[in-house]
Amino acid sequence: MQDRIEPLMRELTDEMSRGYRAFSAAAGINMSDMMAIRFVRDQEGQATPTALGRYLGMTSGATAILINRLEKDAYVLREQHPNDRRATLLRVGPGAEEMALPLTRSAKRLRETVLADYSRGDIEVIERFLSDIVAALKLRNATLEEDLAVKGKEGA
């Protein structure tokens, strides 16, 4: 049974990526822009340009260019940090909220359709499995990023 999970996870990842590529193309933005908007939204008003750049694996200059592009179309807004005048926070702007409505509705319908056939107990197992996978991936990715940063410093 476990030998079927890995290919299904890979297929799930591929289909999620395919959906994001199609949605970003339909919205007229690239994948980095889409990922940036999602990151800012998920940070609930606490996203910083530095954290965004780290998340996307971009230099500070490339991150600034991306933020400028997203700000131009009101996908992302910059705000002064309430406790640190030197810091900037990012939040989702009205352009992104308007753009995301069709995707949000589609995702909700998809979840409702798929989950309708599962019992509450099944859904609890699915939630636990997905939470465990996400936690394991976050730990693995942080370790990989740290290893890459060390290798980058050694190679410099």
List the main descriptive attributes of the protein structure presented here.
156 residues, mainly alpha, Arc Repressor Mutant, subunit A, 6 helices, globular
How do the strands and helices of this protein lay out in sequence?
Layout: H1 2-27, H2 31-42, H3 49-56, H4 60-72, E1 76-80, E2 88-92, H5 94-115, H6 120-155
Antiparallel strand pairs: 1-2
Helix pairs in contact: 3-4
What does this structure look like?
This protein has about 160 residues and is mainly α. It folds into two domains: about 90 residues, Arc Repressor Mutant, subunit A; about 40 residues. About 75% of the residues lie in helices and about 5% in strands. The chain contains six helices and two strands; from the N terminus they run H-H-H-H-E-E-H-H. Strands 1-2 form a two-stranded antiparallel sheet. Helix 3 packs across helix 4. It is globular.
Short description:
12% of the residues are buried. Helices cover 75% and strands 6% of the residues.
- Would you state the CATH class of the largest domain? Mainly Alpha
Supply the number of structural domains: 2
CATH superfamily of the largest domain: Winged helix-like DNA-binding domain superfamily/Winged helix DNA-binding domain
**Under the CATH scheme, which architecture of the largest domain would be assigned?**
Orthogonal Bundle
